[in-house]
């Protein structure tokens, strides 16, 4: 996906000056993030995405087309040479912290205490630690210690 200096202004942005709103305009629907999640977990083919998500074929076709057009996924020939597959681009891989933060929020707030759920682990099988935003000096950040600086 082009950097902001290379992207032409889109008159349909929800809030053109807000990075959160622009990101949601690009990947803010339920299915797009689940496709990205599954691509991060190794899904490559249309069939794999459909099997993992349960998404209707027409919706999956639309999301794969949009995610490819916006530069989150690219298509390449599969190693077998018989079909095309989808792979994450740099922009798609850059969504990893977003997916991780959503996962960790869900672990804390979307399950009853003791309710079973999947866990993200590192290459050694160790659960991934909580992400905590920090300032340049290492101080934890939150809503009480940050503010949005509007552009003029």
UniProtKB/TrEMBL annotation:
Segments carrying the region annotation (Disordered) are 118-152
Alphabetically ordered keywords of this record: DNA-binding, Transcription, Transcription regulation
Instruction: Look up the domain of life of the source.
Output: Bacteria
The HTH hxlR-type domain sits at 18-114
**Biased composition range(s): Polar residues:** 132-152
Q: Name one Pfam family in it.
A: HxlR
Tell me the Gene3D superfamilies matching this sequence: Winged helix-like DNA-binding domain superfamily/Winged helix DNA-binding domain (1.10.10.10)
Any one GO molecular function term: DNA binding
Question: By its UniProt entry, which PANTHER family does this protein fall under?
Answer: TRANSCRIPTIONAL REGULATOR, MARR FAMILY (PTHR33204), TRANSCRIPTIONAL REGULATORY PROTEIN (PTHR33204:SF18)
In Swiss-Prot or TrEMBL terms, this protein is called: DNA-binding transcriptional regulator, HxlR family
Source species of the chain: Streptomyces qinglanensis
